[in-house]
Design goal:
The complex is a heterodimer. By secondary structure, chain A is of the alpha/beta class. Chain A has a single domain, classed as Aconitase, domain 4 (Alpha-Beta Barrel). Chain A contains 10 helices and 8 strands. In chain A, the strands form 2 sheets. In chain A, strands 1-6-7-8 form a 4-stranded antiparallel beta sheet, with no helix packed on it. In chain A, strands 2-3-4-5 form a 4-stranded parallel beta sheet. In chain A, strand 7 and strand 8 form a beta hairpin. Chain B is globular and about 55 Å long. The chains are: A alpha/beta, B alpha/beta.
Chain lengths: 208, 466
């Protein structure tokens, strides 16, 4: 996994609520690659050309490494391809007022930093970067620096922060120690034997 | 120490280790695996030479890619031709239990998990699928994960998780006759918002929930994620224990009795503190249908498409405008009577026997409109056979519905059936997102009876009229 320390560049405002993972990474109407398929349902015109009203099609936001979003970004399906699609577009950080929970977790396994900011702070920020002026996201200091030099602190789980800084997903980070899990299962097997004794009664299930 | 919530109690029983700052290593009791989100996880295991940690706790079914039309095989479409054998190979390589496409136990994982007694009250259930919350209908703590976390579960039977905030939604009153749990939840999601549950585990409670069957509770919990909550569940009770008692893989005899004694404690304490509590009235809920591209875009079936000018804020107004443009609807337009070309009855939301019974009650003695292709897709082969034992297949076929084979089917626009751009589909599934059922397809979410009547009338219909 790629480490995340400082990311600087234009921040594209996609200020729609509930942008779901079916839109970010569509199962249908793909264009052959994650990068070309990302946001396809709202990115292209019916004739296949770029829809000029989609923010990442604006010249100043092409290749922007930061996305600004409204509430519940990444809601819906658990598909991790939503995060892979953002990465394929070069997006390393999404700043929103809230995120879909599963998407939020998936970000950290792929070197993408999801930041939650208050709506008023985010709206002000969106106005400030609307002309494509670069935003700086500094994970080492846990601050976002606006083009005018305003520092906006953000919070992130300390463990998740460390993992991103070091470029380690949960497997690499060795967070899940097999001996501890075995020990848990040995104890738990006595307390809740029905979880571990998956006996096959062999009969077809009855319904009711 | 104050009282604990149902979720706290289940959570506490599964903490393998505390990592600090509120992150826990959480044990996974049941790992459900399907064909589409798992291949990359198995590739990662192979690359890292890692074995599956607890093969006996891992179960799979090819559900997403399979064709749902009668007479299907894995050769019936290109996707299943790839994904079904791949899942079979991956499962064989690690000695995992697969309910394969021709197995009597095949079906959608969230339908067969409970049906086979694999999903149990108080168990943690994880799957690479956001609708794993469906399993909460039995009082299990189920949630969806991405492929990276799915890989971790295969490799360690555990996950690093932050304990969610706690929300309780209490439904007072009782559902009116003919109103489905689907309507109840569309109403709740519209009232509260598609992001209301973000960051929370939601316990559904109150007399309207207690009165539901386990199947109906699964419909409620299935839609928790459409409210934004990764986890939704109902406290297990005697209804649950009776449901579990006869299941194929459920504990039996003295172990079952011990389990029930344990499960009886799985209720929120009277003094449990929730971060957020909501009370809603079930009695006033009527059949609903969605007009837009979020499950929160629903209205009473006899109501009109709302005006974006009435949206809660500017961003939402823009969202409503885009949704109405995509759906080719105008503010003030009536939904009832809107012609549709497709009807889909099935999915992990509404693909269980009681859903098919509700649809069949409407379909009996009537005929599907000649302008509509209507598919009824049982959630599992067991559901299919149980429905056939009641003669429901004849009811549907005589009425002109297609009687399919189990799978996710049209919910994610799969199943060997392709809808065209601009087509309108009344669907009992869970998502009406842009492009979800196919490029340009317009989805109207509804309950099973509403969907059945819409097929017959060839247009969105109010089931209270029949």
């Amino acid at each position: 996994m790629d480490a995340f320390t400082v990311v600087r560049g234009p921040a594209a405002p996609l200020m729609l609520p509930d942008v779901n993972t079916d839109v970010i990474s569509p199962a249908h109407g793909g264009k052959g690659s994650l990068a070309l398929s990302a946001f396809a349902p709202i990115r292209y015109l019916r004739d296949g050309g770029d829809d000029p009203s989609f923010v990442l099609n604006e010249e100043r936001f092409r290749g922007a490494p930061i996305l600004l979003a409204a509430q519940n970004f990444g809601c819906g399906s658990s598909r991790e391809s939503a995060v892979w699609s953002l990465r394929a577009l070069g997006i390393r950080c999404v700043i929103a007022t809230s995120f879909g929970d599963i998407f939020f977790g998936n970000c950290f396994q792929n070197g993408v930093l999801p930041i939650v900011l208050d709506e008023t702070v985010l709206d002000t920020l969106a106005e400030e970067v609307a002309d494509g002026a670069p935003l700086e996201v500094d994970l080492r200091a846990s601050v976002v620096r606006s083009p005018r030099g305003v520092s906006i602190p953000f919070s992130v789980d300390p463990l998740r922060r460390r993992q991103l800084l070091e470029g380690l997903d949960d497997l690499d980070a060795g967070l899940l120690r097999r001996d501890e899990i075995r020990a848990f299962q040995r104890t738990d097997r006595v307390l809740r034997p029905w979880i571990y004794q998956v006996a096959d009664a062999g009969a077809s299930p009855t319904l009711g | 120490m104050g009282g604990r919530t149902l979720v706290d109690k289940i959570w506490d029983q599964h903490v393998v280790a505390e990592l600090g700052d509120g992150l826990d290593v959480l044990h996974v009791d049941r790992h459900l695996v399907h064909d589409v989100t798992s291949p990359r996880a198995f590739t990662t295991l192979a690359e890292r030479a890692v074995e599956v940690f607890s093969p006996e706790l891992t179960f799979g079914s090819p559900e997403h890619s399979v064709t749902i039309l009668s007479g299907r095989t894995e050769e019936s479409n290109d996707m299943s031709r790839t994904f079904v054998p791949l899942l079979r190979r991956n499962f064989a390589a690690h000695g995992l239990r697969l309910f394969d496409i021709d197995s009597p136990d095949h079906g959608i994982v969230h339908v067969i998990g409970p049906e086979l007694g694999l999903t149990l009250p108080g168990a943690t259930v994880v799957c690479g699928d956001s609708h794993t919350c469906t399993n909460g209908g039995l009082g299990a703590l189920g949630f969806g994960v991405g492929t990276s976390e799915l890989t971790l579960v295969l490799a360690t039977q555990s996950l690093v998780q932050r304990r969610p905030k706690m929300m309780r939604i209490t439904f007072a009153g009782a559902l009116a006759p003919g109103v489905e749990p689907k309507d109840l939840m569309l109403d709740a999601i519209t009232r509260l918002g598609a992001d209301a549950g973000t960051g929370y585990a939601v316990e559904f409670a109150g007399p309207a929930i207690v009165a539901l069957s386990v199947e109906q509770r699964m419909t409620v919990c299935n839609l928790a994620v459409e409210l934004g909550a990764k986890i939704g569940l109902v406290a297990p009770d005697d209804v649950t224990f009776d449901y579990v008692a006869t299941r194929r893989f459920a504990p039996a005899g003295a172990v079952f009795d011990a389990a029930v004694a344990h499960w009886r404690d799985l209720v929120s304490d009277p003094d449990a503190a929730f971060d957020h509590e909501v009370e809603l009235d079930a009695a006033t809920v009527v059949p609903r249908v969605t007009w837009g591209t979020s499950p929160a875009h629903s209205v009473a079936v006899d109501a009109r498409v709302p005006d974006p000018a009435g949206a809660p804020d500017e961003n939402a107004a823009r969202q409503w405008e885009l949704a109405q443009a995509y759906m080719d609807l105008q503010p003030g337009q009536r939904l009832e009577g809107l012609p549709v070309q497709w009807v889909f009855i099935g999915s992990c939301t509404n693909g269980r026997l009681s859903d098919l019974e509700a649809a069949a009650a409407v379909a009996r003695g009537r005929k599907v409109s000649p302008h509509v292709r209507a598919l009824v897709v049982p959630g599992s082969r067991a559901v299919k056979w149980a429905a056939e034992a009641e003669g429901l297949d004849r009811v549907f076929i005589d009425a002109g519905f297609e009687w399919g084979e189990p799978g996710c089917g049209l919910c994610p626009g799969l199943g060997g059936v392709t809808l065209g751009a601009g087509d309108r589909c009344v669907s009992t599934s869970n998502r009406n997102f842009v492009g979800r059922q196919g490029v340009g397809v317009r989805t109207h979410l509804a309950g099973a009876a509403t969907a059945a009547l819409s097929a017959i009338e060839g247009a969105i219909a109010d089931v209270r009229r029949v």
